[in-house]
Design brief:
- The chain has about 210 residues and is of the alpha+beta class.
- It has a domain at about 65-195.
- It is about 25% helix and about 25% strand.
- It contains 4 helices and 9 strands.
- It has helices at about 10-25, 90-100, 105-110, 145-160, and strands at about 65-70, 80-85, 120-125, 130-140, 170-175, 175-180, 180, 185-190, 190.
Length: about 210
């Protein structure tokens, strides 16, 4: 004998109840409908994502100061040209290094030249208390002879003499004192601009 048959809606309600109980037993929360997730439940960084960081590196150029070096004009006389050297290194060594580099391409195009070999090394240069600068040179400078040597010495003497506190220049080759020729060919231990009058820059008339 069979019992009374349950109405169909009652059966479906029972199945749903069993399902909810089973899910609850598995630890899966069941909501009646969609709901907003609490802010504390959102993983860190998702609420307000940070924009990608950019790093800008700026290169600061050192301050430059104008100095004078002396090159050789087509006439054979010296001529002053301007160079820029770092202000922090505005020393006789830095100025002579600029002289060793010789004329720029535009200057060479006008006929300016240098008797100082490009392979010259300025080992050191200091200005003494007696207003005499001591210039220690290496490389191929010691191989100069004749008029080229006189012109190169004149360039260095006038370039050094353009700095304050320098009235004469003594030369060293690889650390050893050396006499140098002046315009008349005489060898001197200390050279000054007056001894190169025939090579001195010509002052324009008027």
């Amino acid at each position: 004998m069979t019992g009374p048959r349950l109405p169909r809606p009652t059966v479906l309600a029972g199945v749903a109840l069993v399902t909810i109980v089973a899910l609850a037993g598995c630890g899966v929360p069941v909501d009646r409908g969609p709901s907003a997730l609490p802010r504390k439940g959102v993983p860190f960084g998702l609420l307000q994502p940070s924009p990608p960081s950019t790093t800008t590196t700026s290169v600061v150029s050192p301050a430059q100061s104008p100095v004078q070096i002396f090159l050789i004009a087509p006439s054979g006389h010296l001529v002053a040209v301007t160079r820029q050297v770092p202000s922090a290194s505005e020393s006789l060594t830095a100025v002579l290094d600029a002289l060793v580099k010789g004329p720029t391409n535009p200057e060479a195009a006008t006929g300016l030249a240098s008797a100082v070999p490009a392979q010259t090394v300025v080992v050191g240069a200091v200005i003494g208390a007696n207003e005499v600068a001591t210039v220690n040179l290496g490389g191929t400078f010691g191989q100069l002879v004749g008029q080229a040597q006189i012109q190169a010495v004149a360039q260095i003497v006038f370039t050094a003499g353009a700095l304050p506190g320098v009235s004469g220049v003594s030369f060293e080759l690889a650390g050893r004192a050396a006499d140098v020729p002046v315009a008349n060919g005489a060898l001197v231990p200390v050279a000054n601009p007056a001894q190169f009058a025939s090579l001195a820059p010509v002052t324009p008339a008027g």
